[in-house]
Design goal:
The complex is a heterodimer. Chain A has 2 domains: 142 residues, Immunoglobulin-like, CATH 2.60.40.10; 122 residues, Immunoglobulin-like (Sandwich). Helices cover 10% and strands 44% of the residues of chain A. In chain A, strands 3, 5, 6, 8, 10 and 11 form a 6-stranded mixed β-sheet that branches. Chain B is elongated, with a radius of gyration of 26 Å. By secondary structure, chain B is mostly beta strands. Classes of the chains: A mainly beta, B mainly beta. Chains A and B meet through helix 1, strand 1, strand 2, strand 4 and strand 6 of A and helix 1, strand 2, strand 3, strand 4 and strand 6 of B. Strand 1 of chain A pairs antiparallel with strand 3 of chain B, so a sheet runs across the interface.
């Protein structure tokens, strides 16, 4: 029985596999292009939010409808049929997790695309429009999804292959203004990986009301034996924190670094919110060292600076106009 | 008549200040309301600007044949070396992406399904021309499992890997042609 199975599988298993398309690339291994997706617009209020440039990030009131344009392109040498659809996602175990296939959720049921299937010749692109209509009865809260562009495999094979690239969707629903995004860095802990590489584990807490996607860098300074600096080392991506959740990001450093002490400076960012924490750390010979508290993190500098400057300018303008007799007539019309 | 600085000056002055802080505002596009909807509804207030970020793309796949090794009761196969999985990231900024894989059961007429937990995926060594890339195996493909992660460098990147897939065939499964579907999903934030 098993041997028969072997024979069938070795023969290439030509039966029962769909997805073959004419015009596929030859087997010669020439460089192939890609199919891709990109966001073409973002809300003006999020001009300072880097996440909004590549993900659909929004806060909408119930009953609101928005539209976003995306561009899907084909730089391969074969004609592609590209499916465009939204599917469910969630934040689980501090990771932005997307569901398999076309699994729906509440958010995806609010989403429609004007071109669910795009037939793109080689070297072409097309703009599609995504509509998100939040029903008037929608309850408040943040929902997640992914807008996928998907291509099914060509040719025969026992394993049919599907590739898809997506734009993440973070949609918050609720009346009034956007709920705040905020976090605090609680501590930095020096550690050593099982492979012997020094690590710094940062504990942080989402103190806001929206999910966070952590990015950032770690730098070391004032090292031992006159070593000036090391880094920056990137914070590995993929840590998502729900509101109220506490979690850690682990940055792995160069294995040749001496133990310390070092001044560690960790810069963490999610969207518009950024904090920097510093601590004096010494890497343990093995395992996990003691957490080092970092004190109260600073509020995102750009936000504070903008608010202070705006406030000062407002006061200045109001006072100046109040004291300028020539301007007063404009204000007396009412 | 009384001078009311707060009402006649405060609001426009504050608006102008915020705009100045944000720098030049790109061409904004008001989203039209659906017909019949009064202009005072929220959709009328949603204003967007053009995004100049590039695209996230990947190769269009070809299907793969898994060859059966009887002594090992395993079917396995690699992607052709000349046809690796490639992810091109032209998005601006310090952006990462991850690739997960998941498989359906492998099915054949008249045979029990081979569950995706019997399938495993090895991306091998992934290479990139910008930033850093890490790869790890998925032992069991029943749920989406991260196999490749790209940490950003500066600017665009092209990352490739040549995967191998293996399916352990349970004892109760007999001779047949089994087919399944494996999905690569790539997104980043």
């Amino acid at each position: 029985m098993v041997l028969l199975a072997a024979a069938t599988l070795v023969q290439g298993a030509v039966a029962g596999v769909g997805g073959a398309e004419p015009g596929r690339d030859g087997p010669s291994g020439e460089p192939k292009g890609v199919f891709s997706i990109r966001l073409l617009e973002a809300p003006l209020v999020r001009r300072d939010d880097p996440r909004a440039y590549t993900s659909i990030v929004d806060h909408l009131g119930p009953g609101t409808t928005i539209r976003r344009r995306v561009e899907v392109s084909n730089t391969t040498s074969r004609r592609l049929s590209i499916d465009l659809y939204a599917a469910a996602a969630s934040i689980e175990k501090r990771t932005f997790a997307y569901a398999t296939g076309r699994t729906p959720n509440e958010l995806t049921e609010w989403i429609s695309v004007d071109h669910p299937v795009l037939k793109l010749p080689p070297g072409s692109k097309k703009t599609a429009r995504v509509t998100i209509g939040v029903p008037p009865t929608a309850s408040r809260g943040e929902r997640y999804g992914v807008l996928w562009a998907e291509v099914a495999g060509a040719g025969t094979g026992t394993a049919k292959v599907i590739n898809r690239v997506g734009i993440r969707i973070y949609l918050d629903v609720g009346p009034g203004g956007e709920p705040p995004s905020a976090f605090e860095i609680l501590s930095l802990t020096p550690a050593r990986s099982p492979q012997g590489q020094p690590q710094i584990i940062a504990q942080l807490r989402n103190t806001g009301e929206r999910a966070l996607e952590m990015t950032g860098t770690l730098e070391l300074a004032d090292g031992p034996a006159g070593l000036q600096a090391a880094g920056p080392y990137p914070v590995p991506p993929g840590t998502s924190l729900l509101p109220g959740d506490t979690g850690g990001v682990t940055v792995t450093l160069d294995g040749r670094l001496p133990d310390g002490p070092w001044e560690a400076r960790l810069r963490l960012r999610s969207g518009r919110v950024e904090h920097t924490a510093t601590a004096t750390i010494t890497f343990p010979a093995a395992g996990v060292g003691k957490p080092v508290s970092v004190g109260t993190p600073r509020v995102a500098f750009s936000v504070v600076a903008a608010a202070v400057v705006a406030g000062l300018m407002l006061v200045f303008i109001v006072r100046r106009r109040a004291h300028a007799p020539g301007k007063r007539s404009n204000c007396l019309r009412e | 008549m009384r001078f009311k600085p707060g009402r006649c000056l405060g609001v426009p002055a504050a608006g102008a200040t915020v705009v100045a802080l944000l720098g030049p505002v790109p061409a904004a596009r008001a989203v039209p309301c659906p017909s019949g909807q009064p202009p005072s509804t929220p959709c009328d207030t949603v204003v967007t600007f053009e995004v100049s970020s590039g695209a996230l793309g990947m190769t269009a796949p070809s299907n793969v044949t898994l060859a059966y090794n009887a002594p090992a009761r395993q079917a396995s196969g690699s992607w052709p070396a000349g046809d690796p999985v490639t992810v091109i990231d032209n998005r601006n900024g310090n952006l990462a992406w991850t690739c997960t894989v998941v498989s359906t059961p492998f099915t054949a007429t008249g045979q029990p399904n081979i569950p995706p937990s019997q399938a495993s995926y090895s991306p091998g060594t992934a290479s990139t021309n910008n930033g850093t890339v890490t790869s790890r195996d998925a032992n069991g493909m029943a749920t989406p499992t991260e196999v490749v992660e790209h940490d950003p460098g500066t600017g665009s990147s092209a990352t490739t890997w040549v995967p191998t897939m293996t399916v352990d065939v349970p004892l109760q499964n007999g001779a047949a042609t089994y087919t399944g579907t494996v999905t690569h999903s790539v997104t980043g934030g």
